[in-house]
Amino acid sequence: MIVYKWLHPIPLQFGACFSAVEFYREMRQLKCDDPPSFTCDKSAAVHTFEGSDDSIRMLLTLDPVAAAAQDGIEIAALLAHEAVHVMQECRRWMGEKEPGSEWEAYTVQHVAQEFMGWYQDYMKKGAR
Prior knowledge:
There is one protein chain. By secondary structure, the chain is α+β, with helices and mostly antiparallel strands. The protein is built from four helices and four strands. The protein has helices at 20-29, 64-67, 72-94, 101-124; strands at residues 4-6, 12-17, 44-50, 56-62. A hairpin with a 5-residue loop joins strand 1 (4-6) and strand 2 (12-17). Helix 3 crosses helix 4 (101-124).
């Protein structure tokens, strides 16, 4: 089951998924008729879904097979990169071109830390 966290005060939830099977199960639960590919043929991707109530759900997908060829620093950098996309969606939602460098930095740090924690938990469960 995918766990989402709210990024208050923005009506945005973000989560992470490290399994194609789990991803497509989530797509069915979200009633996504035409789901994107798991990682869009990349090591990782962030998918954005808008709800009927104007809420936003963003889902990081990371291919564990592709990640197996990378070291911890490369994976951390990849997760930080994907966290920037979450921050960019926040900016889009707020209608801000320059919301403040500290706000951006703290948002990316928070999201990246959650992504890294979820990945660490996934790996501890014996994913490889």
